[in-house]
Amino acid sequence: xxxxxxxxxxxxxxxxxxxxxxxxxxxxxxxxxxxxxxxxxxxxxxxxxxxxxxxxxxxxxxxxxxxxxxxxxxxxxxxxxxxxxxxxxxxxxxxxxxxxxxxxxxxxxxxxxxxxxxxxxxxxxxxxxxxxxxxxxxxxxxxxxxxxxxxxxxxxxxxxxxxxxxxxxxxxxxxxxxxxxxxxxxxxxxxxxxxxxxxxxxxxxxxxxxxxxxxxxxxxxxxxxxxxxxxxxxxxxxxxxxxxxxxxxxxxxxxxxxxxxxxxxxxxxxxxxxxxxxxxxxxxxxxxxxxxxxxxxxxxxxxxxxxxxxxxxxxxxxxxxxxxxxxxxxxxxxxxxxxxxxxxxxxxxxxxxxxxxxxxxxxxxxxxxxxxxxxxxxxxxxxxxxxxxxxxxxxxxxxxxxxxxxxxxxxxxxxxxxxxxxxxxxxxxxxxxxxxxxxxxxx
Length: 443
Ligand SMILES: Cc1cc2nc3c(=O)[nH]c(=O)nc-3n(C[C@H](O)[C@H](O)[C@H](O)COP(=O)(O)OP(=O)(O)OC[C@H]3O[C@@H](n4cnc5c(N)ncnc54)[C@H](O)[C@@H]3O)c2cc1C
Fold this sequence. Notes:
Its EC number is 1.4.3.-. By secondary structure, the chain is of the alpha/beta class.
């Protein structure tokens, strides 16, 4: 598997991950333009949610000539590989943390920004004939062991002022909803929903091309040159120049794409298994209904949902290096987590899984993304830490505004560059040590 810290660039013509979404989704994606234009007002690198939202906004609202260059096919990165949890927020920090650091007013302003992201997502849903196959049942954040309950409860007590519709489920209430020895209490977030990530990519890509954006697939940027005030990008399909370039490559960003962002993100593999459809008896035994999203309180979280056809999607952190990503032990590890979460699914966990795939998420050193300009004419957004389905919708819009010289709201995402990892060469070693510690803690 492509590894951003090892390979020079992804693509061209790498096939999509063999995911459940690719196998079970019937949709139209716009086709790639055949020739790479020599110039554009703005070039966007990467055709995932971030890049497509930015391109759409630049073309539709600012009438810019935009060319999106994608290393492989549209949505080849995380945007067609994720679990489809549309939830409020991004990164790993909650409102309590923001409130403590920056005050209540800023924490509320962050909430408003998250709501804008949801509103944009709902618009994209309206542009999809299948309505993104949404499953609206909210999201359960579950205390996976008894000593996680007090912390979760404290979190809820603070959360209520920001999200008054959330609900606390004590041990008895959660045991009626999720039949698992690893569910001791939960917070229910009613606004969240499950979606089909490939349909979201397709909806965005269609809107972007309808607004005049040129999409070029199989054109990885291989070299970047600055000529006067122009950025000249060398791709496998030729060269293209513009005064403005948006880097929307997120967890797939090759190490040396541009010096200004080198060492500011850690690409981390997130992996997912999808089982065969559960039998009625199995579904009744585990309790969760077919529209709820579930995530636990581990440092290295597990998350799961039932898909519209009754399969169980179960995800968590994967291998550390790209070359290990497909090793069967990582799928086995997720199956073991299914068994400990749901002993009633013992039989299922001895069967081969129908789908197993992974993708690179971008982790920021201080746990939250930044949308900023690292150099004149260069703009980027990355570091969502695996929570980007909802937030990328607004991040793309903000990127476009930034590129057009507008002032962004005074929120922490827009005020500073991504911090550089100390000793970037040792990022993987630090990640390995962190995984050992987190696993030991949640045992
Ligand atoms: C298994 C998994 C499950 C997840 N589940 C969830 C979830 O349930 N909810 C949630 O909120 N988030 C989830 N995420 C994270 C979410 O998918 C991402 O945050 C989001 O898709 C990021 O979108 P993006 O457009 O920024 O990046 P991506 O979709 O990753 O797009 C980056 C693109 O850049 C391209 N690229 C890279 N280098 C070059 C180059 N040199 N030239 C040209 N193109 C290049 C890549 O080919 C890629 O297509 C999950 C991620 C994974 C991997």
